[in-house]
Structures
1.
Amino acid sequence: MPLLVMKFGGTSVADLDRIKNAAAKVKREVDRGYNVIVIVSAMSGKTNELVNWVEQTSPLFDAREYDAIVSSGENVTAGLMALTLQEMSVPARSWQGWQVPINTTSAHSSARFVSIPRENLDTKFDEGMRVAVVAGFQGVSPEGRITTLGRGGSDTTAVAFAAAFEAERCDIYTDVDGVYTTDPRISQKARKLDKIAFEEMLELASLGAKVLQTRSVELAMRYNVRLRVLSSFEDTDETSGTLVCGEDELMESKVVSGVAYSRDEAKMTLVTVEDRPGIASAIFGPLADAGVNVDMIVQNISERDYEGHAGAVTDMTFSCPINQVARAQKAMEDAKAAGKIGYDDLVIDTDVAKVSVVGIGMRSHAGVAAMMFKALSAENVNIKVISTSEIKISVLIDRKYMELAVQALHDAFELEKAV
Ligand code: ADP
Ligand code: ASP
Ligand code: MG
C-alpha cells in the first residue's frame, strides 16, 4: 500500500478538538487507500513548560534527565491521537521512539538519527494497522537512554520516517498554510510560496524561519523527500501549501525569495586584541571548545590608541546565540587568565537581531547587497555586522529595528509580488 507521512505541530494538537480535527485529516488519507505514519509534537506550550520545570529543579541539569522529561509531551499526544483514530474506526497504534526503535546518537538534547529499522512497523502494517502514530522529537541512544533532537525536532522525525519508509510525501501540517516570503506574523504583505528550493528553505530555516527545523530540510534534500508545508486548520488537497523541492522543479525564481530574522542573537567585542598571526585561532579555539556557535565575525582596527601596547592592535567582534553568552564570556576570561589572549575589554551587546535575505538568484545577480543596505539606510537602521554567502546576506542590527528592517527589505525586493 502507498504510504504517507503526516506531521502535526504543537498548535495542531493543542487540545482534544484539534487532535480530532487532525485525526479527521489522517482518516481521509486512509480512506483514499494510504497507510499513514503520523508524527506528533507535544501540545503547544507543553515542551516549554517541561523545559521550565527542568531548569527550576536543576539549573545545571543532567542532560539525560532533561531528555527523559521534555520528550514526554509527545508521548501524550501520540497516545491521544491513536485513541482518537480508533474512535473513528481507523486501526491505529502509538509508538514511542524506543519502541520503533528510533536509534540516535547519544548527544542529548541535540541527538542525530543513526537508523530507523522498518521491521516493527512493517509487521504491524502487514497485520492490518493502517496508522502508526509516532512521538516526534525523541529517540533512543546506544546506551538505551531517551534522547531528543533539538527544539522543533518533530519536523526532522517526520522527514526521517518519510525517507526510511519511502513515503510518497511528507506533509508538515502547521498553523500557517505554507512557507511565506517572510514570517506572516511580522509582515502582513508576506506572500505564500507555491514552491521553494531545498537550498533556499535550508538557508531560511537556519537563519531563523522556524516553520521547518533546519535538519529536516537537510535530510529531505539528501534523501529527496517530497516535503510539503500546509495548514491543519483549512481544507487541503494535493495542491495545497508549499512544496519544498529541487531547483529543477522551480519554473522561475526571483533574485531574493525570502527574508528571515533571528531575535536571539548577541554580539561580543574583544577590544584591543594584539594583531598577530594566530590570534583568531587563539580566540575561536576556546569558543569552539566551550560549545559556542559563533556565527558572524568581523575584525577591525581598534578605536583605542596604541598606548600601552607594544605592537598593532585590533578589535574582534563576533555574534552567537544569546543563551551562549555566559559560556562565551567565561571561555574568553579563562583564555585571558591563562595568558593565551590579551584584551582590554569584553563588550557584550544582547540587544541585537539578525535579518537576512535569501535567494538562489543571488548567484547570478550583482547588487543585492547594495540594495539591501540602501533599504536599511532609508529607514535609518544602522548595520553592525555583515556576513554573506552565495545565496544569502545577513546583517546584525539593533533588535528594536528588527520588524522595521524585515518589512523594509520585503518592500525593497518587492516580495509581495509573484515573479
Ligand atoms: P509547529 O508547532 O507546527 O511546528 P512552528 O511554530 O514551529 O509550528 O512553525 C510555524 C511558524 O513559523 C508560523 O506560525 C510562523 O509564525 C513561523 N514562520 C517564520 N518564518 C516563516 C515563513 N517564512 N513562512 C511561514 N511561517 C514562518
Ligand atoms: N515539542 C518539541 C518542541 O517544542 C518538538 C517539536 O514540536 O517539533 O520543540
Ligand atoms: Mg515547529
Note: The chain has a mean pLDDT of 95.
2.
Amino acid sequence: MEAFCVEIGEKPFRSVQILQWIHQRGVSDFEAMTNLSRNFRAQLNDSCEIRAPEIVLEQISSDGTCKWVLKTDENNRVETVFIPEEGRGTLCVSSQVGCALECSFCSTAKQGFNRNLSTAEIIGQLWVAQRELGIGAVTNVVLMGMGEPLLNYSNVVSAINLMLDDYSYCLSKRKVTLSTSGVVPALDRLAEVCDVSLAISLHAPNNELRDQLVPINQKYPIEQLLAACKRYVGHDTRRKVTIEYVMLENINDSPSDARQLLRILSQVPCKVNLIPFNPFPGTIYNCSNMSTIRTFSEILQKGGLITTIRKTRGEDIDAACGQLVGKVDDKTRRRIRLDAAG
Ligand code: SAH
C-alpha cells in the first residue's frame, strides 16, 4: 500500500490512513476518507475499488452462530461462520473455493477444488463480518473454513498480516489460528514469517489410518508433521500446537487409538481438541457416541495431555462444514432465522 501511494505521487504514510479507513472504520467509499485531499480521493476513485464478497445467504442459529455464504464471483461461493461465546467472538474464515485435498470425512473435499481466494477475498470475510456485527465483535479468527490455507500460502500470509496489523484489525497473533492438514514445507516457511497459533488436523494415531483419512499424509507422514510442529513452536515453552482429532465411530476412537495417540504426542508441546464428526449426505462415517468420546478424552488427560471436546455449534443450520454452499445458487441475499423450534 505504501509503494502504491508513492507510485501515484503521495506520501507513504497515506497508506496507513487508507488502511484505517477501510479496515478499522469499515468505509467502502473513498469520498468518506476526509483526511485525504480531494484530488487524491478522486485519483483513488478512478483507479481502485473497495469491494467485499457479497452475502448471498445468511443463517442464524438459535445458539447465535451465524453463517454466511459469500459470492466471490459468478461461479464461486465460500462460507464464513461467526461463533459468539462468552467474552469473545470467533470468525471461521475460508481460504480456497473447495479443496484439493481429499480427506475422506470432509464435505468440502467432495466439492473438489475450484480456485484460491485472493488476499482481498480472505480479508473481505473479516471486513464483511465487522460490517454486519459491528466493530470489535470479532476477537478471534480461525482459518478453519473451506480450503487448505497452506496451499494458498502467499495470499493467506498477506491476509494474516492485515489481521495482525496495528492499522488494520490489530488482532494478537495468539488470537489468529491457522489450521492445516500438514503441508510440511509450507509450515516451515510460515514459521519464518509469522507465528500465529497453529492447529493440526491429525485425526489418526498412525500412518496406516491417516493415509486413508487425510491422504496428504502419504506425502508428509506423521513423524515429519510432528517434527515440523516442534520446529514451529521452537524454544518457547508457553506455546502449544492444537491437535485436531475428529471422532469417527469404530474408525479412530478406540481406547487403544487413544493410547497410541498419547504415545506419538508425548514429545510434542500440544493440546488436543476432539471434534465430534459432523455427518453430511453420502458420508460413510458416523460420529462416535458421547461416552466413547469421553473415555477417549480421559485416557489422554490421565496421560497428561490437555484435552477438550469441541462443542458443536450452529447444528441447526449446519450439518457439516462446506455443506451449505452446494445448496445455494441464487443471486439475491436470503436470510433464514431458525428459532429453537427449528
Ligand atoms: N484444510 C484445513 C482447514 C479446514 S477444516 C485443515 O485440514 O486443517 C477445519 C477442521 O474441520 C479440520 O480439522 C477438518 O479436518 C475438520 N473437519 C472437516 N470435515 C469435518 C466433519 N465432517 N466433521 C468434523 N470435522 C470436520
Note: The chain is about 35% helix and 20% strand.
